[in-house]
Amino acid sequence: MKQLSMHITDLCNEKCGFCVVGSPLAKTDSVEYGDLVRFLAENAGQGYTSVNLHGGEPTIHPRLFELLRAIRLLEYPRVEIQTNARRLKDADFTNRLADHGVELFVVSLHGSTSVIQDCLTQTPGGFDETIEGIRNAKRAGVAVRTNTVITRMNMGRLMDICRLCVDLGVDHVNISNLHPVGSGFFALDMQAPTVAETRRHLLPVIEMMAQSPARLTLEGFPLCVVAPHEKLAIEDGTRSIRMMYQGKVLDDYDAFMDTQMRAFGPPCDGCPLRARCGGVYNEYAERRGWQEFGLQQPSPIGG
């Protein structure tokens, strides 16, 4: 996969306390529309198989359909939108997006009920709108991939979230490690699970999803944390992502994450998974240390 990825707005209609972009803190938008179009034009014809639009919340951008028309004129073959899907509750809006070439919605879904989701996103009524948005996307013939960030608030409901995704006909379920940057930096102590907590709740879900028609991937986890399921890591070396974020261009997003956002510590020395692993988020290691990591840790499954 060779993808062009664009952060098109800092603004959002939710206030997730673990937002890596820090959208709840944004009062104005730093992104210039002209920069987005120039980035698209400069990379046209370079073999990119898709354009991924993200934010903030892309669906609230006032010039979204204009941007989608530009993508089509420049003959990019596929468009994806990362979204909380709240605006997709409007079926006509969703159908317009499909008509403008959107083939995948990557939907943030962090709860199986409104009690959890609306609390995490600080958006009363948001969960119901997201669920209706997913249904409208499927009715419009657009594929859906969900993204769920594991937190201490939702980790006990992770299996319920995945069952809900299957019931909704979601094509692909992605589960993400909480990245403690942006608003997430302030959420680390309260919301980021420990390695033991993550494994206790995540490993049974992986086993359950193996019997599901939906694809499952894992994102942002050190491989020792998800072993023996390290092959589910979405950062599997097969994707190439060139990203523009607030005017800055990252030629290789995964390499940037590996070299700038994550690190290796003493437990990583000699680990057989290290060559394929991206490491541990810097802020997590700085705050909690390295003692949790390493393949020598016992599995919490069964006690």
From TrEMBL:
One Pfam family it belongs to: Radical_SAM
Highest taxon in the source lineage: Bacteria
Keyword entries, A-Z: Iron, Iron-sulfur, Metal-binding, S-adenosyl-L-methionine
Transmembrane segments: none
Residue ranges occupied by any Radical SAM core domain in the UniProt entry: 1-219
InterPro entries: Aldolase_TIM, Elp3/MiaA/NifB-like_rSAM, Radical_SAM_PqqE_MftC-like, rSAM, rSAM_sf
UniProt-recorded Gene Ontology molecular function terms: catalytic activity; iron-sulfur cluster binding; metal ion binding
PANTHER family xrefs: RADICAL SAM DOMAIN PROTEIN, TUNGSTEN-CONTAINING ALDEHYDE FERREDOXIN OXIDOREDUCTASE COFACTOR MODIFYING PROTEIN
Protein name, UniProt field: GTP 3',8-cyclase MoaA
